[in-house]
């Protein structure tokens, strides 16, 4: 989205460098429910460059500092909240290119728990941002309609072919949460589950009236993209809308003008 002088330099959160950022603070209660949201411009200094595997090892070994230990605790609480509201996350294995004996192949890597916990933080922020915009009457939501019955029926046939047990009385979300991405048939079925996510889009609203549908069916709540302005264009504008909402100001005109095209 941006030239490397920005994406890998001036705008990248490199360790030991001071960088401008949109800094979110979301207060949670003991059950992981969001009770207050604030976002403002700030200068931050990253202390270290981390990777998921390293974070997972520290948490598993009990050597993680408090912020990383809290990632696990909050991630689990937010996953419980996801279940309660009827949402669902697909931990689809990642495809990776591997080299062996001078040739290349395709391999699959199951995601780590730390990746799922981190994803819950992003989802939490997206929901908080959507609420900020909804409360002020102007915004852009990431929306997804409910999957049609035919798509679910097709997925049931795929489950049967892959020897996935899916009793008729068990909801789709419960089946997905029971899957183990380390098992090849489960991983294949998770890939098939992405077909229910078709139809996702961005929906603009102004004047206070929310669109129909307003909810993202997989998130099971209002949701927006606002956490990755360096790689998703819409996040740049959603961030400005949320900053204005928190500051009690009208959104910048250049943001309003861009919404229909987004």
Structure description:
With 262 residues, this protein is of the alpha+beta class. The protein has one domain (4-145, 199-258). The chain has helices spanning 4-10, 52-61, 66-85, 113-136, 149-161, 172-177, 184-193, 233-247, 253-258, and strands at residues 18-28, 34-45, 94-100, 103-109, 139-143, 201-205. Strands 1-2 form a two-stranded antiparallel sheet. The longest helix has 24 residues, at 113-136. The chain is globular. The mean pLDDT is 92.
Poorly predicted runs: none
Q: How many structural domains are formed by the residues?
A: 1
Mean pLDDT: 92
Task: State the shape.
Answer: globular
Q: What percentage of the residues does DSSP assign to strands (E)?
A: 15-25%
The Cα radius of gyration reads 20 Å
End-to-end separation? 15 Å
Strand order of the largest sheet: 1-2
One letter per element, helices H and strands E, the order comes to HEEHHEEHEHHHEHH
Biggest sheet features: 2 strands, antiparallel
> Helical stretch count?
9
Helix share of residues? 40-55%
Count of strand segments: 6
Which structural class fits the helix and strand makeup? alpha+beta
């Amino acid at each position: 989205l941006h030239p490397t002088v920005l994406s890998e330099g001036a705008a990248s959160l490199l360790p030991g460098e001071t960088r401008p950022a949109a800094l979110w603070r979301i207060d949670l209660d003991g059950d992981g429910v969001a009770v207050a949201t604030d976002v403002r411009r700030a200068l931050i200094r990253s202390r270290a460059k981390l990777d998921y595997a390293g974070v997972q090892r520290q948490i598993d070994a009990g050597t993680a500092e408090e912020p990383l230990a809290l990632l696990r605790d909050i991630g689990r609480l937010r996953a419980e909240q996801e279940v309660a509201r009827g949402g669902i996350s697909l931990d689809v294995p990642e495809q990776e290119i591997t080299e062996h004996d001078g040739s290349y192949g395709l391999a699959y890597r199951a995601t780590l728990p730390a990746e799922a916990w981190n994803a819950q933080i992003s989802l939490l922020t997206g929901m908080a941002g959507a609420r900020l915009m909804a409360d002020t009457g102007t915004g852009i939501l990431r929306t997804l309609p409910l999957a049609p019955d035919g798509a679910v029926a097709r997925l049931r046939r795929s489950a049967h072919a892959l020897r996935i047990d899916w009793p008729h009385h068990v909801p789709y979300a419960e089946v997905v949460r029971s899957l183990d991405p380390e098992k090849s048939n489960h991983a294949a079925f998770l890939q098939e589950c992405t077909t229910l996510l078709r139809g996702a889009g961005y929906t603009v609203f102004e004047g206070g009236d929310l669109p129909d549908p307003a909810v993202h069916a997989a998130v099971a709540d209002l949701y927006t993209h606002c956490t990755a302005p360096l790689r998703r264009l819409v996040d740049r504008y959603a961030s400005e809308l949320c900053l204005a909402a928190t500051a009690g100001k009208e959104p910048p005109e250049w943001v309003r003008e861009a919404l229909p095209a987004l």
